[in-house]
Amino acid sequence: MTAIPKQFKYANDILLGSSYAVANTNNDLSILRNLPFWTESGTNFNKVIGLPIKDNQEHPIYDYEIRLFNELFPISGDGDFKDKHLWVLKSTGLGITEWTLRIIAWLCTKDDSFKGSQVCIVTGPRIELAVTLIDRLKGLFYNKLGIIFSNKETVLGLNGCRIEAFPSHHLDAMRGLANVKFILLDEADFFPPGQQKDARDISERYIAKSNPYIVLTSTPNRPDSLFYTIEREKEEQCIYKRIKLDYSVGLGKIYTYEEIEKQRQSPSFKREYCLQYLGTIGNVFTPLQIDEIIKEGQKYKDIAISQYTLKTIGVDWGFSSSKTAIIMTEHIKDKEDKIIVRYSQEFDKADPNAICDLLFDFHRKYMNCYYMIDGSNRSMVNLLKIKFGESLSWDSKTASPQSMQVVPVNFATEHKQMLEKLHQFVSQKYLAVPEEHDKLIISLRTAYAKELNLDKEQTSYDDSIDALMLSLKGYIIE
User: pLDDT digit string (tens) for 110-132?
Assistant: First the structure.
């Protein structure tokens, strides 16, 4: 028996069993030739290299993994793809990354069809992720076969095929390859936004060149992310076979019932296990704080909007790459002060005149409405001021509700104070948000800040949270 090689020391227990074969430094892969990927009985690829292991227990290839296989291959398993492009939105821990690595290993070793070609694995921006996936591939051949590879950390040469992992921020080297046979984008919904598009574009450009298999796998992230975009593509426009696998497909298999019940207590359960695009939990508010303001919102949601209360409408004008967000809040004085969200909406590439008409409608319906608007887009502010017959000679430094109804705000200089105020209103339960305002709630749950600067890349629906901060600027609560 040889000790486990250094490069496998941190591989997880899904990969490596408790016993190891004598090292096979000749890398003899002939035992794997012509094997089917999986069969219920008899010899097959997965039984020869060893079944996946979790918590020191072997797991078979489960029915949901066989379903994925059958979407890609004919039932005969002769290696011809039905759908060469697969999109899998998955619950965490189902073993889909492991399954895909095994598919790659099988395709490379069952015959010589991958010789002289390349397989590309795209990971997140950290180089450690790329190293880990290549390490996991190498580990597949060590457990039972004792094969040790001497390639560098991000590369594996397997039966004449070069398998290389690329961090998502360093994809230039992935361009211009001669014969790409397979591309895996792993946890692609968590690549930084700009890198998501780049990774997809580079991968799909190979379709005309070498017609590779393209597999995208991920748990869901933000509602405006890569997977959300692909999920909503029209069937005739989408090149991917789309498959969704929530936790229920693995219940009593890869998951125990006790594990899932414990996971239900986590605020990330709906995203990690139920395939909801909720983004990552932010650092501005705690999940409990958000739950409390939703609870408050449900108390007040059926109370009619009063003509006698103060109402402020926050407007975050959209530019070419952002949306126009509108939030209307109302100050209710019941037993205690409450600011309740009455309207929330985001508009993509909206007509400015249509937005102004919508805003003026609030003025027609309700008394005591004031508009707090990001003043950086002077032409849009003026367009609304014309509706109200207000002067176009204004300065956001001196703008005030005492002298105007449309109040421009210098967002660039005041955003830190406004974020502090939002935090105060949430933590002291002044704010009440009915659950119907789902996008705004997601933006609050995912709000992430660095030194009181909202991180727009990590915060979902960041335009909505900007509009809310603008709306709250209109209130002073002692």
Answer: 999 999 999 999 999 889 999 99
Single-letter residue type at 181: K
Residues 78 and 191 in one domain: yes
Give the domain range for residue 392: 287-472
Please state, in angstroms and rounded to a whole number, the distance separating the CA atoms of residues 308 and 139. Answer: 70
Domain identity same for 232 and 120: yes
For residue 379, the number of C-alpha atoms closer than 13 Å in the C-beta half-sphere is 4
Q: Is the pLDDT of residue 200 over 50?
A: yes
Q: Look at residue 468 and give its three-state secondary structure.
A: helix
Asked if 343 and 425 sit in the same domain, the reply is yes
**Residue labelled with tokens 């605020």:** 267
Length of the chain: 478
Instruction: Look at residues 69, 97, 123 and name the one whose alpha carbon lies nearest to residue 12.
Output: 97
Q: Using the structure block, give the residue that is written with the tokens 């010899």.
A: 43
CB under 8 Å to 222, separation ≥6 — which residues?
189, 228, 277, 279, 446, 460
- Neighbouring CB atoms inside 10 A of 237's CB total 7
With tokens 């727009």, the residue in question is 456
Closest of 180, 410, 407, 435 to residue 314, by C-alpha: 407
**Residues 405, 454: one domain?**
yes
- Which tokens go with 111? 């015959």
Residue 329 to residues 237, 311, 468, Cα–Cα distance (Å): 40, 6, 8
**Rounded Cα–Cα distance for residues 46 and 137 (Å):** 13
DSSP states of 179-238? -EEEEEEETGGGS-HHHHHHHHHHHHTHHHHH--EEEEEE----TTSHHHHHHTS-TTT-
- C-alpha dihedral (295, 299, 304, 310), degrees to nearest 10: -60
Q: Would you state the structure tokens that stand for residue 37, as one six-digit string?
A: 């990927």
pLDDT of 5 reads 46
Looking at residue 147, the DSSP 8-state letter turns out to be: B
Residue 279, in any domain of the structure: no
Residue 303: CATH number of its domain:
3.30.420.280
Residue 478 included in any domain: no
Rounded mean pLDDT, 352-371: 95
In this structure, the answer to whether residues 267 and 311 fall within a common structural domain is: no
Same-domain check for residues 47 and 80 = yes
Q: How many separate domains does the chain show? A: 2
Tokens of 298: 């449900």
